[in-house]
Predict the 3D structure of the following.
Amino acid sequence: MYNSNFSVEGRPHLGRMPMTVKAILSRKGNDVVTISPTATLFDAVKILDTHRIGAVVIAGAGECMEGILSERDVVRTLAHNIRTAGACQLCDESVEKVMTREVATCKYSDTVYDLMERMTTGKFRHVPVIEDGRLAGIVSIGDVVKHRLAEMASESNALREYIATA
């Protein structure tokens, strides 16, 4: 039996368009913190701390994205090298030696549901948004969860109103 409250993929839509990355960015903004690939790991860690963020996009000349450096990249670097290199020497490493080079990205039209699936499957928490070949924003798992909770509250309220008026 066909249930009209679910899309072909089995995802709830309740007759509305699915929420997209563009909807998230319209609320949170398009600002992206970037750092040069030649900056030091110390510089990157200070930026993460100052901005209270979990990842910084590595951008070279012309703001072209070259990679991303997350808290996990920093911890892995420490875990693998602290005994041999020493913590102080690691601070002087360039971020291009530590960053993740193959970055999963998304675009404005990607749905929140698809993005949640990709983040869960890929085990990453930050996804740069690329639109028309340029860096247009960044979405974190926290942004996705916050957006999804608001969407669920709205759906719940709509159902309550429907039941109350039936």
